[in-house]
């Protein structure tokens, strides 16, 4: 505490070190009053600093983003999720706020950013993605002590319009399967059927392995991994979206389709005189089954095929909706259907030991029965 002139004091309090530069920080304030009052004011300032109200940093939003991405990787976030954040930040946040200090970004600055993107025609859903990215970044900044509160907490992105979910009918799914069977890649028909009856995501389907995941004797399917392909990087196998394994019951028809697919993989390798790798992939173009299909290639083929049968409105993701919707219509609980699809109903998951319940077997049979043709015979 320094007296600059009669009854004018400079109050100085240490505020730790800047988390980015490592330099010591001080908070100073000019106070007018007598010595006793100045001591009380300094004590109040010291209390403010202790409570973290002056933990500012010279870090910019670019600095925060770089450190935040490192933290996401440390936590094991999906590479696809991280890449999505990177694209949103580079395209829609960095040009405007990248050089702004973290402590000086206001709620008004964020709402102005949202409004500017709306004015240039960005959809409400895309603007909400910008908000989600900023909200997560500033929450982390608060955890690190770079800010006292998040400006994104009060920033309001535009409301996302409610959209009616698209659920293909059994006839439409069967039409897609039949078209794939007539095409040059009949194995795609088998993948579509497995997707429709199990609700697996495309990356989970691509990640299926013969020995680790498929139990044809017990009619069980273990979903334990996903496949991801980031541009410029090697194809990689990662945990499932919620980083949990699940075990599904297989109906006789789906089990028969998987058996056929595995026989095709083995026969192709034998014809080429090549041995299969240890624990080969189920859906693969590699002669030795060492590499799985890429999720994006599955979507691209599916998109071309759906147009040939006038089902442009059906996307591959909607096959999950088929299982979820018709499973519930058949009388199975939302929780049971969600667990089969790999959603994460936390309460239900605590009581789901991995043992296949009879209700899941009945659910598997009920959904698969919708796709059985008159001339089909269970495998």
Would you kindly provide a written description of the structure presented here, covering whatever features stand out?
There is one protein chain. The chain is mainly alpha-helical and 379 residues long. The protein folds into three domains: 2-50, no CATH class; 61-153, Tyrosine recombinase, N-terminal domain (DNA polymerase, domain 1, Orthogonal Bundle); 170-369, Intergrase catalytic core (hpI Integrase, Chain A, Orthogonal Bundle). 50% of the residues lie in helices and 10% in strands. It has 15 helices and eight strands. It has helices at 35-50, 61-74, 79-97, 107-119, 124-144, 170-182, 187-198, 202-206, 210-213, 252-271, 295-308, 318-329, 334-341, 346-350, 358-369, and strands spanning 2-5, 8-17, 24-32, 214-215, 220-223, 226-228, 236-238, 246-249. The strands form three sheets. A three-stranded antiparallel beta sheet has the order 1-2-3, covered by helices on one side. Strands 4-5-8 form a three-stranded antiparallel beta sheet. It is elongated.
Mean pLDDT: 86
Treating each run of at least 4 consecutive H or I residues as one helix, how many helices? 15
Fraction of residues in β-strands: 5-15%
Radius of gyration: 28 Å
How are the strands ordered across the major sheet?
1-2-3
Q: What CATH architecture of the largest domain would you give?
A: Orthogonal Bundle
Class from secondary-structure proportions: mainly alpha
Specify the biggest β-sheet: 3 strands, antiparallel
CATH class of the largest domain: Mainly Alpha
Number of strands: 8
What is the fold named in CATH at topology level of the largest domain?
Answer: hpI Integrase, Chain A
What is the helix fraction of residues, given as a range? Answer: 40-55%
Distance between the termini: 86 Å
Oligomer: single chain
The helix-strand sequence is EEEHHHHHHHHHEEEEEHHHHHH
């Amino acid at each position: 505490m320094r007296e600059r002139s009669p009854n004018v004091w400079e109050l100085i309090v240490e505020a730790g070190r800047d988390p980015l530069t490592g330099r010591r920080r001080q908070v100073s304030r000019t106070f007018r009053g007598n010595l006793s009052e100045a001591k009380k004011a300094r004590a109040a300032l010291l209390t403010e600093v202790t409570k973290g109200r002056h933990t500012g940093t010279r870090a910019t939003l670019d600095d925060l983003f770089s450190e935040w991405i490192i933290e996401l990787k440390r936590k094991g976030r999906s590479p696809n999720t991280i890449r999505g954040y990177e694209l949103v930040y580079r395209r829609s946040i960095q040009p405007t706020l990248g050089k702004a200090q973290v402590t000086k970004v206001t709620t008004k600055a964020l709402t102005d950013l949202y409004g500017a993107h709306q004015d240039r025609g960005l959809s409400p859903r895309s603007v909400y993605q910008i908000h989600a990215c900023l909200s997560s970044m500033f929450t982390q900044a608060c955890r690190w002590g770079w800010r006292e509160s998040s400006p994104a907490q009060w920033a309001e992105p535009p409301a996302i319009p409610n959209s009616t979910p698209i659920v293909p009918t059994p006839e439409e799914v069967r039409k897609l399967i039949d078209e794939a069977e007539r095409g040059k890649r009949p194995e795609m028909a088998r993948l579509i059927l497995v997707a429709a009856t199990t609700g697996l995501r495309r990356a989970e389907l691509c990640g299926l392995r013969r020995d680790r995941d498929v139990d044809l004797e017990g009619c069980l399917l273990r979903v334990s991994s996903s496949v991801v392909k980031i541009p410029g990087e090697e194809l990689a196998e990662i945990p499932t979206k919620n980083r949990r394994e699940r075990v599904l019951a297989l109906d006789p028809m789906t089990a028969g389709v998987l058996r056929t697919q595995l026989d095709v993989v083995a026969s192709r390798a034998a014809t080429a005189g090549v041995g299969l790798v240890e624990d080969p992939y189920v859906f693969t173009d590699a002669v030795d089954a060492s590499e799985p299909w890429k999720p994006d290639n599955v979507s691209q083929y599916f998109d071309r095929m759906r147009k040939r049968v006038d089902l442009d409105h059906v996307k591959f993701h909607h096959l999950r909706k088929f299982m979820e919707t018709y499973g519930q219509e058949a009388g199975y609980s939302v929780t049971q259907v969600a667990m089969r699809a790999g959603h994460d109903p936390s309460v239900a998951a605590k009581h789901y030991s991995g043992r296949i319940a009879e209700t899941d077997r009945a659910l598997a049979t009920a959904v698969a029965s919708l796709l059985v043709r008159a001339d089909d015979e269970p495998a």
